[in-house]
Each structure stands twice: as structure tokens, then as C-alpha cells.
Specification:
Blueprint: E1 19-21, H1 34-43, E2 48-53, H2 71-81, E3 88-93, H3 100-105, H4 116-119, H5 121-134, E4 141-148, E5 164-169, E6 179-183, H6 188-198, H7 205-214, H8 219-232, H9 236-253, H10 261-277, H11 279-288, E7 296-297, H12 311-317, H13 320-332, E8 337-339, E9 344-346, H14 349-357, H15 361-378, H16 386-399, H17 410-425, H18 429-447, H19 452-467, H20 471-488, H21 494-509, H22 513-531, H23 536-551, H24 555-571, H25 579-594, H26 598-615, H27 621-636, H28 640-658, H29 663-678, H30 682-700, H31 705-720, H32 724-742, H33 747-762, H34 766-784, H35 789-804, H36 808-825, H37 831-838
Parallel strand pairs: 1-3, 2-5, 2-6, 3-4, 4-5
Antiparallel strand pairs: 7-9, 8-9
């Protein structure tokens, strides 16, 4: 099938597409492949095509596909050669599947769609896939997924539609899901053409054919040989002689099958000459071999004041001119790929393996420690500003290949813990928990369970487990390590106090709000004594205590403490991209809402959400928490449409990011159920509320206050749908459980009592409704004041019940007094005020806060 048969109109030659993104530069010595490129061009029309290497019969160890056969170069050549046929060409590195959606998301602005900073990575990527499917605004598009592995990892991100998808891979399993264009080693004609281009002087066609035959026509090996001869002026016969000398020992050594013998021999010759002419370049290459195969920032190669760096590397890094010369020499010998725009060095994974293989065990360990030192020294102390986060992302790709977890050096383990801090600050809880678990396993095996770094890693792991909703596991870890930390680090050590503070979170997650408050008061005093009232850790402890006060119905104190933490933190310095600041800000907005000032809560919540979206991203868990809280505030202030938009969006994001059973998803689901009830979608609200109620029992336990509050929400919906008897039974059960856990004077308990009074009234048990309403109103007024919306709702409902009980004087007096208070606090136009005036029963619903 030709290009014209594919339906793409002819375009002028040498034209760049409207969108040309991330495509590597064309290889100046690209050779041959004409037949394969034409076959690829035909096969790309309306189907997925994979590029995989086919093993050459004379090299049987290539059965599973060698690196170095030229798959990526062929894809690059295709993109450049046929660029005039496309309006959009986008290149995606697919060797890390977790980053593929991010690469897609960054295409969004080029398609006139909101980018990931606006909508989040998932929504932006989905928008891109949909736009490509529709062919809007471009139907002539090409996406290249380079170095893909398992088909299952990319199934959901391969776009459908009128354009083309090209995948490069070494995995033959793609043959079952895509049309495969095999990429063999060069033919003799292509090899000769390549070498005569690469070595423009001093090689004949006969010599090129002889050299190519000796190298098995493997493109990467030919590139190595050509670079060496072009750089040194070595004759072909001299090169062949040296190659022959190397081949015998290589075969006798029995190299593993992933090292193709021609590549190994060619590489060794390049290394020998490099060692002879510029040995420091070889030292640098050996160092690069112990990083990952991803780009290495050049500025990592900088003198380390306190580290374990070989003297020869320390001397090289201290001389920027010699270092630059060494880097350039590695590039000229085709041993590294240089990206001068991004200032990075990249080494092919095959070359890295060959370099490491040639070193004895002691030297390998020495250089690995050197890499640990360079990575540790390059890690910023900040985790929130954009430059620091970009650097940590660069370092993250080298953590596992460099085997950082195996180090017992204090500065390297400190770097590992800092990486956990970065992952937390960037909202990557799952990744942080995996790295923490790996650190704990390795460090415990090497240093024992009482090692301070093991204990600190366990503390961070417990925090991430709690973030992931695994409360019992977090509680067990904290309980186990706190005595050890007291003994080993001391009771006032920052990490000991951090674990002690975590115990307060454990109490909250278990529903022991009063115990958490008592505990956190002690923790705050300990922090203030040890570090002073303005220290960042002290402010975190203050914020925790504010959460406790809100959970124990002391909204005024909670508001003051959140405000103090917010103001002191802001005064301490730059606060861009700070999850702590957003937590204090949103805590303040939540406390204001709980105190009954819905308008102010909306204003604060809007500011907090804007900060979170701009500084942390729309999918950051702290941003989503602010969004849910703002949705609640909007609903209570009467702005139901705006609240519904926020609530639905937050729930869908939580569902996608964390799954249906995560506590954050459940909180967003209950918020959405309350919104649907407020908009009259009672059936949908009941279905969602019942499902969420059951899941709360799984997440927190059957006797957690949140579970009982959710049950009261479900009961309320049954009454509104005409089943007050069932509602009464559920509310009585919830009320009894809440009284047992929190006491009779807690706002959760009083909300359930308010709803139970409504059930009794609906069942014509008016006297019981009045009796319960009077007691509840008295307790509400004592707890939050006469003008609090919850107390007013209880009063308004009691007025209705007094009227039904024929106590018209008391009913009228209470109704008028309550309406006046509503006008004064919420305004004449508010829905609660109207309901009171019109004699409609008000409800008390439950919105579970995130712990």
C-alpha cells in the first residue's frame, strides 16, 4: 500500500509538520533500509506496526533480539523521511510505561486541549487519545513509541483513528498484536555504504565488505568501528588484525548471549584506543556504566567535597576543560550519545553491560560507590521548588540501576530518605512506599532492625501506608518502632518525635478522636520545648492538634490553630509548591466551614484550591482534598451547581488514581452522594451512599465514627424516599454507636439525633420527636452556639414538630427567632433560610473529613 492509497494528500517536500515533538535528530550516516522503510510505510496505514530485530542465522545468540540492530535509528529516519506526509509527529520513550501517559499529556496543548497542569496527566492524556481518534485538529498524525516492552503495558495508550502508530521493541510478543516489519542486521551492500560514509577517506569497498563481514553487519558495531577509524586514522587491515586478536579470547570466555560477539570485539578495540589516547575518558565511561541507561545530567560530574570518588575521577571533575574533552572524545568514539541541548550523556545499555563485565568485582564495587556519591551530592535539600523536583526526577531514573538501596554509607542512605521525601511531596505515595519497603529490606539485612536508617525508613513507610489507606499496617509499624527510636535516637530526636506524632494519626484513623487530641497536645508541647514554637515540625504538630479539635467539635480552637500554623509557615520563607502550606490553608477553610461561616469557607477554599492546582497539580492528593472540601462548602452556601461540578470531578479523579476503596475516594463518594441528594437524584444518591457505607466499614472498621455517620446519611435517604421506618432503625443504631464512641455532645452524634427526630415525626411519633429535638437543640446550642447553622436546623425542625404537637405559641416563637437568626447569619436568599420560612424540614448530613 502506498502513501497515496492511504488517503493522505500530496504536500510540498521538505515541509515540517505543524507539530514536531521530541523526535531525535536524524543520523547523518543513516544507510540503506529502503525496502524495509517502504514496507513499514505501507504497513502503517490504519494499523499498529512494530519494529523488531530478526536474528541473523550466523549469530544464534540474537534469537531474542539484540540491542544495536538499528530499530530506533530506522524509526527516526522514517519520521524525518516522511515528515511531509504528516501534520503531527510525536515521539514517546516507552521503556518506562509509567511515564508514557505523561508524554501523551504534554501533546495536549498542541491539539488545543488543556495541558496536564490544568487537568492532570490522566485527563490530558485521555483528551489527546480522543482527539487523535477523531482526527481533530489533525488527521495526518504519527506517534512513535520507542523501546516498548510488554504489549499489555501499552494497550490502553495506543491511539486509534486515522493516523499512524510506530512501535520499536525487542519483544517478539508484539507480533501477535501488530504487523511486524523485521529489522535485520545490514546487508553487505548496506554495510559497505555505511562504512564508506562513516570513513570518507581511507577505505575501499572491498575493505568495507571485509570489515563488515568481520563485525557481523551489526549496525552498532559498525558505528563503533567507523568512529574509531575516523578518529584515529587506523587502517582497515590494522583494525582487522586487532579484531582477530580479540575475537578468540571473547569466544573462549563464553560471553552471555545478550552480548553479541561482533559488538563486543568492536567495543573492545574502541576502548583500547581510548585508553591509550585519553585514559581519563575511559574512567568517565566506566563511571557512566553504573548509572541507568537514561540520560545522565552532565553537571552530576562535579567535585564532591565528602564522598567516595576515585582519585582519577576527582582530578578529572576538578578540571572542566579536561572533563569536556573527555566527554567529547566519548561522543566521537560513539561510546555515548550527547545531547548538548539538554546537557546530558547517555550510554547504550549494551555498552554499559560490556564495560561492567570487563571490570573485576572490587573495581565494580568501587565505581558503584562513586556513583552513589555523585547521586547523593547532586540531590537538592529542597523538595518543593520546580528546579529541585526536576532534579529529583532525573536522579530517580538511576536509583534502581545504580543499586542505591545496597549502600551502607550514611550520605547515600540519607539521599534515599530524601528521595522518599520528594516522592511524598510530589504526591507519589505508591512509588514512595515501594522504595521505602526496598530500603527497609536491604538495610535491615545489612545493618539490623535497630539501625537508625532502618527505623527512619520504617517511619516514612508507615506514613505512606497511612496515605494509601492501610491504617492498621501503619499503626503496627509505629507501635513497634517507637520504643526502639526512644532508646537509640533519644526521646527528643526529630525522627522519634515524628513517629510519636504519627501515633496521633493512628488514633484518629482508629476513631479515637479524644485520645488523639490528648496525645497531640503532649506532642506539641514536646516540639515547642525541643525546637521552639515557629519550627516547621512544630507547625505540623500544631496542625495535627487543630485537626483533633475539629474532630472533637471545638471548631473555634481548630480555626485559630490552623490560622496560626498557616501564618507562621508563610512568614518563614518561600512557600511555592508546598503541600504543608496547602494543608494548613485547607484546614483553616474546613474549620471555618465547620464553625458555620460557609461564605468565608468558600473564599478560603477557592484560594487554597487555586494554589494547589498551580503549585502541586490538579491530581495531587492535597489539591483534591481541597477540591472536595470546597465542594462541600459550595453546597452548604447554596451554590449547588458549582459544588456538583467540583465534587464529580474530584470523585472521578480519586477513583482513577486510587481505586474505589481508598479512603479519599470514599470521602469524595459520600460528598457526591450528598450533592445528588441536594439536587433531587435520590435513587442515585442512595445507591452510592449505601455502597460507600459498606466500604467505609472495610476501610476504617465497623465501629469507626465515620462508618456510623455514613449510615446516618443512608438512613436520611431512605426517609426522603418514603421509608421512615427503615430510616429510624438505621439512625437509632448509628446514634447509639456514636454516643458510645464520641459521647452525646459531639456534632456527629447530634446530627444523627436531628435526623432521628425527623424519622419520628414522619412516623407520627410527635411527642418523641419533640422530646428528642429539645434535648438535641439544647446540646447543640451549648456546643456550637445558638446561631450555628446546625443548631438553627435543629431549631427549625423542632418548631415544625411543636406545631404538629399543637404547641402553636412555642412553635411560632421558635420559628420566628430561628428565621431571624438565619437571615442574620446566612442571608435572606439562602436555601436554609427559605426552608425555615416555608416550614420545610432541614437535614443534617455527614461529610467525612480526610484524616
Amino acid at each position: 500500500m502506498t502513501a497515496s492509497q492511504g488517503g493522505f494528500p500530496d504536500r510540498s517536500r521538505n515541509r515540517f509538520p505543524e507539530v514536531w515533538g521530541r523526535v531525535p535528530p536524524r543520523h547523518k550516516n543513516f544507510t540503506g533500509r529502503a525496502e524495509q522503510l517502504n514496507e513499514l510505510r505501507a504497513g502503517l496505514m490504519n494499523q499498529v506496526t512494530a519494529v523488531v530485530p530478526t536474528p541473523e542465522p550466523i549469530v544464534p545468540r540474537t534469537l531474542h533480539g539484540y540491542g544495536g540492530v538499528g530499530k530506533t535509528l530506522m524509526a527516526v529516519e522514517y519520521a524525518h523521511r516522511f515528515r511531509e506526509e504528516y501534520d503531527l509527529v510525536w515521539w514517546i520513550m516507552a521503556d518506562q510505561p509509567g511515564l508514557v501517559r505523561s508524554a501523551l499529556a504534554h501533546l495536549a496543548p498542541h491539539l488545543n486541549l488543556p495541558g496536564p497542569a490544568v487537568t492532570g496527566v490522566e485527563d490530558a492524556a485521555n483528551g489527546v487519545l480522543e482527539a487523535l481518534r477523531r482526527g481533530d485538529p489533525y488527521s495526518r498524525w504519527l506517534l512513535v513509541f520507542d523501546n516498548a516492552d510488554e504489549p499489555e503495558e501499552l494497550n490502553d495508550v495506543i491511539p486509534q483513528g486515522p493516523g499512524h502508530v510506530l512501535i520499536t521493541t525487542r519483544n517478539h510478543r508484539w507480533g501477535g498484536v501488530a504487523e511486524t516489519v523485521p529489522v535485520n542486521v545490514f546487508s553487505e551492500r548496506e554495510s559497505v555504504e555505511f562504512l564508506t560514509r562513516r570513513i570518507p577517506r581511507g577505505i575501499t569497498a572491498e575493505e568495507a565488505a571485509e570489515l563488515a563481514e568481520a563485525l557481523g553487519h551489526l549496525p552498532l558495531a559498525l558505528e563503533q568501528a567507523g568512529a574509531l577509524q575516523a578518529e584515529t586514522g587506523m587502517s582497515v587491515q590494522e583494525y582487522l588484525g586487532l579484531l582477530s586478536e580479540r575475537t578468540g579470547p571473547l569466544l573462549r570466555e563464553g560471553k552471555p548471549p545478550e552480548y553479541p560477539q561482533p559488538m563486543t570485539a568492536a567495543w573492545q578495540l574502541s576502548v583500547a584506543k581510548l585508553q591509550e589516547n585519553l585514559p581519563e575518558a575511559m574512567d568517565l565511561l566506566r563511571c557512566c556504566a553504573f548509572f541507568g541507561p537514561e540520560p545522565i545530567p552532565r553537571d552530576l560530574f562535579f567535585p564532591v567535597e565528602e564522598g567516595h570518588v576515585r582519585p582519577e575521577m576527582a582530578e578529572l571533575m576538578a578540571d572542566p576543560i579536561r572533563l569536556s574533552k573527555a566527554i567529547g572524545q566519548l561522543g566521537r568514539y560513539a561510546l555515548v550519545r550527547l545531547d548538548n541541548t539538554n546537557r546530558t550523556i547517555q550510554v547504550h545499555r549494551l555498552i554499559q553491560a560490556l564495560v561492567r563485565e570487563e571490570l573485576d568485582e572490587y573495581t565494580q564495587e568501587t565505581i558503584r560507590v562513586e556513583v552513589w556519591s555523585l547521586l547523593s551530592a547532586a540531590a537538592p535539600t529542597s523538595f518543593t521548588d520546580s528546579a529541585a523536583q526536576a532534579r529529583y526526577l532525573e536522579l530517580l531514573s538511576h536509583m534502581r540501576p545504580a543499586r542505591v538501596a545496597e549502600s551502607d554509607l550514611s550520605e547515600v542512605r540519607e539521599f534515599g530518605l530524601n528521595m522518599l521525601n520528594f516522592l511524598y511531596n510530589s504526591g507519589n505515595y505508591e512509588t514512595a512506599s515501594r522504595y521505602a519497603r526496598n530500603f527497609i529490606e536491604r538495610w535491615t539485612a545489612d545493618s539490623g532492625r535497630a539501625d537508625p536508617y532502618v527505623l527512619r525508613a520504617q517511619a516514612k513507610y508507615a506514613n505512606r501506608l497511612r496515605d494509601l489507606g492501610r491504617f492498621s499496617e501503619a499503626r503496627d509499624i509505629n507501635r513497634a518502632i517507637l520504643p526502639l527510636m526512644n532508646d537509640i535516637l533519644g526521646p527528643d530526636h526529630p525522627d522519634t518525635l515524628a513517629v510519636l506524632s504519627g501515633r496521633g494519626a493512628d488514633y484518629r484513623s482508629h476513631g479515637d478522636f479524644w485520645k488523639a487530641r490528648e496525645h497531640d497536645e503532649e506532642v506539641l508541647n514536646r516540639y515547642e520545648d525541643a525546637f521552639g514554637p515557629n519550627d516547621a515540625a512544630t507547625l505540623r504538630a500544631l496542625n495535627n492538634l487543630a485537626l483533633d479539635h475539629a474532630l472533637t467539635s471545638d471548631f473555634t480552637t481548630a480555626q485559630k490553630e490552623h490560622e496560626r500554623a498557616y501564618m507562621l509557615f508563610k512568614r518563614s520563607g518561600p512557600v511555592g509548591g508546598s503541600p504543608a502550606l496547602l494543608s494548613y490553608w485547607n484546614g483553616m477553610a474546613q474549620a471555618v466551614r465547620l464553625a458555620g461561616d460557609f461564605t468565608e469557607a468558600c473564599d478560603l477554599g477557592e484560594d487554597a484550591l487555586a494554589y494547589g492546582r498551580e503549585q502541586l497539580g490538579v491530581d495531587d492528593p492535597r489539591t483534591l482534598r481541597a477540591q472536595v472540601d470546597l465542594s462541600i462548602a459550595r453546597r452548604l452556601s447554596g451554590e449547588v451547581d458549582e459544588a456538583l461540578e467540583l465534587g464529580q470531578d474530584a470523585h472521578s479523579r480519586y477513583l482513577r488514581l486510587y481505586g474505589i476503596n481508598h479512603p479519599s475516594t470514599l470521602a469524595a463518594a459520600m460528598c457526591l452522594a450528598n450533592l445528588w441528594r441536594a439536587t433531587g437524584e435520590l435513587a442515585g444518591a442512595l445507591e452510592l451512599a449505601e455502597d460507600t457505607d459498606q466500604r467505609y466499614a472495610q476501610a476504617y472498621g465497623h465501629d469507626h465514627p465515620y462508618k456510623h455517620g455514613c449510615t446516618s446519611n443512608v438512613a436520611l435517604l431512605y426517609r426522603l424516599m418514603g421509608d421512615p421506618a427503615r430510616s429510624r432503625s438505621m439512625n437509632e443504631s448509628a446514634l447509639a454507636a456514636l454516643e458510645a464512641r464520641l459521647g452525646r455532645d459531639h456534632h456527629y452524634t447530634l446530627a444523627a439525633a436531628t435526623n432521628l427526630a425527623g424519622d419520628l415525626a414522619a412516623l407520627d411519633e410527635i411527642d418523641n420527636a419533640v422530646r428528642l429535638g429539645r434535648g438535641t437543640l439544647r446540646r447543640f446550642r451549648s456546643l456550637v452556639g445558638e446561631d450555628h447553622p446546625s443548631a438553627l436546623a435543629c431549631a427549625s425542625n423542632l418548631a415544625l414538630d411543636l406545631r404538629a404537637a399543637q404547641d402553636t405559641v412555642a412553635a411560632k416563637e421558635l420559628a420566628e427567632r430561628t428565621h431571624t437568626a438565619y437571615v442574620r447569619t446566612l442571608g435572606r436568599e439562602h436555601g436554609f433560610t427559605s426552608a425555615c420560612e416555608e416550614g420545610r424540614r432541614l437535614v443534617s448530613d455527614f461529610d467525612p473529613p480526610l484524616l
